[in-house]
Amino acid sequence: MTDLELLAALPSTGEAGMVINDWERTEANLGVEFPSTFMRFLDVFGGAKFDDFLRVYRAGTDNENIDLVAKTKQGRAALAETRPHIKTLLAERGLTTDELICWGGTENADMCFLVPAADPRAWAVLTVIGRGREYDLFEGPVESYLLRVLRGDLVSEVFPEDFPDEEPSYERHPMI
Q1: Of 14, 32, 60, 113, which is most buried by a Cβ count within 10 Å?
Q2: Distance CA 169, CA 64 (A)
Q3: Can you state the angle between helices 36-45 and 142-151, rounded to 10 degrees?
C-alpha cells in the first residue's frame, strides 16, 4: 500500500466522497504547478482534520479559513515578518518565503508548508511552530510526513506531546 492509502485507511468519521479542488485557479493564483502526488493528497484529505487538531486546507474553497490560497498568503507574510531563521533555511535552497505553499495548520497556529523544488518528486514539507523557533523539515511528500508523524515514527519538534492520539484518526469534510 502507498502512504496515501495507509493514511486513508486510518479510522475516520464524517462525509465520504472525493474533495472538489479548483486546481487551475489555485495554481494560477499562486504561480505554481503542483506535483500530482500533492494533488491526489488534497483530493482525498482536503478539509479533513486529523485527531481534532491538524486541519488540511482545500484548493479553491470559498471558506478562507481553510482555502489553500488564502492560508498560503497569510503564512508567507507571517514567516517573512517573524522568522529570519526560516528565511535563511530557504535561502540555502535558493527559495524565499514567497514560494512556500501552506497546506495545513493546527489549533496552536502551527503552519505546514510545501517547499517547492525543480523536480516534483523532490518537494519537501516544512512545519513551523506558531510561536517560537522550532520547525520540522521533511524531505518527501506530505502524505509520507503525515503518516510518519501519526504513527510516531517521526517525532515533531513543532507539535505538542499529546499529538498524535494513541489511535490516530481523521474527520472528513470534503465540502467544507
Answers
A1: 113
A2: 24
A3: 50
Judge if the upstream peptide bond of residue 164 is cis by omega within 30 degrees of 0: yes
Torsion of CA 130, 174, 122, 33, to 10 degrees: -110
**CA-CA distances (angstroms) from residue 173 to 31, 45, 49, 55, 109?**
27, 8, 8, 10, 20
**How many of the other CB atoms lie within 10 Å of CB of 3?**
18
How far is it, in rounded angstroms, from Cα 9 to Cα 169?
9
- Euclidean distance between CA atoms 127 and 104, whole angstroms: 9
pLDDT per residue over 55-83, tens digit each?
A: 999 998 889 999 999 999 999 999 988 89
Cα gap 120→40, rounded to integer Å: 13
* Eight-class DSSP state of 9: T
pLDDT tens digit string along 36-51?
A: 999 999 999 999 999 9
* CA dihedral (174, 144, 125, 129) positive or negative: positive
**What global pTM score does this model have?**
0.94
Amino acid letter for position 99: E
Strands 49-50, 170-172: pairing kind: antiparallel
Decide if 67 contacts 60 (C-beta within 8 A): yes
